[in-house]
Amino acid sequence: MSDAVYGIDLGTTYSAIAKINDLDQTEIILNTEGENTTPSVVYFEESGNVVIGKQAKQVLVADPDSGIALIKRHMGTDYPLEFRGQQYTPESISALILKELVNAANIETGGDIQKTVITVPAYFGIQEREATKQAGEIAGLEVVGIVTEPVAAALSIGIASTEQQTLFIYDLGGGTFDTTIMRVGGGKVEVVAVDGNRELGGADWDQALIDLISEKFIAQAGLGDDDPRYDEHYISELRRDAENLKQSLTRREKATVRCRYGAADEQIEVSRGDFETATKHLVDQTIEICKRATALAEKKYADLAVDKFLLVGGSSRMPMVSAALKEQLGLDPIPTDYDLAVAKGAAIYGQTAVDEVLSTDDSELPAGQGAEPAAPKYYLGGASNLEVRNVISKALGIKFVRDAEDEIGYIEFIARSNDPVPMTAEPIEASTVVDNQTSIVLEIYEQSGERESEVPADNRELKSVSLSVPALPKDSPIRIEFEATSEGLVRCKITDRASGRSEEIEVQTSVMSAEDVASAKSQISGLTLRS
Predict the structure, then answer these.
(1) Calpha distance 452→458 (Å, rounded)
(2) Which neighbouring-strand residues pair with 387?
(3) Residue 263 covered by a domain
(4) Helices (DSSP H) in 222-365: which residue ranges?
(5) 71, 135 in Cβ contact below 8 A?
(6) How far apart are CA 415 and CA 484, in angstroms?
(7) 343 & 454 share domain
(8) Are residues 339 and 421 in the same domain?
């Protein structure tokens, strides 16, 4: 292997790391406890040490204020945290998880690899993707790529066949859900449609199970109006036990859990039927998202037919998922590696990218000689190259006003959700709104809800720039040029047609500035980690 890359599935509840081994096969690297996955949980000890993973998850039950789980749900948002008197961001917490994964992998393999590809949900927007990359930088890693989880999952099952196939990826993880329809074949991936919900995942099934168990416990123990869910110790223990019970109900029709509160001590029995009834509304949400993605895909390809429907993510193991997909969508799901497919695919994506860069570097070759043609790659299913054509996950637009009295304005969407990238929009012809106007403000927004809304408050401002111009009369022509790259970078140029003056901006932004990242990197580097 010319240069190694780790593929990291930075999950909401569990994370995993993989590489391409010496046999050109994907390999999950075990953590220090000999397990395939590591809980995405961080706990800060009084000593100043930071515990990551299984032990952190266990001690968090007794001391929930000194650690954090489900941090991925807050990536790319202004969500300050404080532990043991120190301030942290979602990116720096995620960096601790990434750093521990890589440190443990290097110990396991005897290597010193710093190059990584990190996965993100397909519906993550520009800000969340950049925040994920920044988390890697804070961890001291070289992030050679960001790849969406469904694309990674598809790569893990092989896309070498020259015959084109349509895959439908249903990815239900611990904290997020997304679905992607893609056409693959011969080392090429074309993403057709994406949709998802960043706040829907196995943790919501856990919460529904906690409520179900608690209601049974209240009735069985005769607690009346005394609700134990307000007791911190009770709820912490039950949250831990509910996940184990959920896993048991995946294999068995019934399972029991012990509940203790005050003098009450009961064994509570829960059937799979009870659990499925209590969580039907959650499954139905995923079905609705699948239907939306299908409708989007069929607008692009009217004759679209799904060849394989793949289940990804640990929570998709639940029997209710397969049953609902068959009953409501008429699909026959195919299981994958569930928890491991995404990390394996990330390793494939990263190794392919690095090998292709190396194979096309002509700088040291004699004049007139080019690089050798790429050889078939076993880890890519025999294909020689990988080509991924993605789509925009969330609509992008520019803020306009209707007239000088319009103080709120509206968002005109230029790139729609699921438009293919790279894309270049037709130039937009706008105009000044008042006489003697001396500046023009260009503001780029990204859709923040599940559906487009022209109301600025329903969207997220990504970046803005002000163009100074000579005093212009009302209705003077202004040209706006807009493009989005396959790497998720948005470029926009605004030009005063009369003077020729222009301003350009690039949008690939996070809530953290470069100075914030450097400061967080220094902070993280000074912490001692253990799993």
Answers:
(1) 8
(2) 188
(3) no
(4) 232-251, 272-278, 280-300, 319-324, 341-359
(5) no
(6) 8
(7) no
(8) no
Query: Is residue 111 located within the same domain as residue 20?
Result: yes
Q: How many angstroms separate the CA atoms of 122 and 192, rounded?
A: 12
Tell me which amino acid residue 119 is. Answer: T
Phi-psi region of 262 (alpha: psi -120 to 50; beta: other; left: phi over 0): left
pLDDT above 50 for 367: no
> What pLDDT was estimated at residue 38?
96
| Cis bond upstream, residue 422 (ω within 30) | yes
- The helix (H) or strand (E) run that includes residue 237 is helix 232-251
**What CATH number does residue 479 fall under?**
2.60.34.10
Residue 284 lies in a domain: no
Q: Which residues contact 152 (CB under 8 A, 6 or more apart)?
A: 7, 9, 119, 341, 342, 343, 344, 345, 346, 348, 349
**Residue 361 maps to a domain:** yes
Q: What is the pLDDT of residue 364?
A: 45
Q: What range defines the domain where residue 107 resides?
A: 6-158+330-385
Q: Are residues 358 and 428 in the same domain?
A: no
Q: Judge whether 115 and 6 are in contact, CB under 8 Å.
A: yes
Q: Is residue 166 part of a domain?
A: no
Q: Are residues 15 and 133 in the same domain?
A: yes
Distance CA 459, CA 235 (A): 35
Q: Rounded to an integer, what distance in angstroms lies between the CA atom of residue 217 and that of residue 228?
A: 9
Q: Are 510 and 132 in contact (CB under 8 A)?
A: no
Which whole number is the average pLDDT over 72-83?
A: 91
**Alpha carbon distance 326, 323 (integer Å):** 5
pLDDT of residue 254: 94
Q: Residue 39 maps to which CATH number?
A: 3.30.420.40
Element (H, E) at 269: strand 264-271
Question: 517 with 138: CB under 8 angstroms?
Answer: yes
Question: What is the distance between the alpha carbons of residues 490 and 129, in angstroms, rounded to a whole number?
Answer: 13
Of 474, 479, 482, 481, the C-alpha closest to 501 is 479
The C-alpha atoms of residue 440 and residue 401 are separated, in whole angstroms, by 12
Verify that 17 and 84 share a domain, yes or no: yes
Domain count, the chain: 2
- Closest C-alpha among 276, 219, 273, 268 to residue 241: 268
Within this chain, do residues 355 and 491 fall inside the same structural domain, yes or no? Answer: no
Whether residue 3 has pLDDT greater than 90:
no
Question: 496: helix, coil or strand?
Answer: strand
Q: Are residues 48 and 149 in the same domain?
A: yes
pLDDT given for residue 83 in this prediction: 93
Length of the chain: 531
| 83, 44 contact by CB (below 8 A) | yes
**pTM of this structure:** 0.84
Per-residue confidence (pLDDT) for residue 6, from 0 to 100: 95
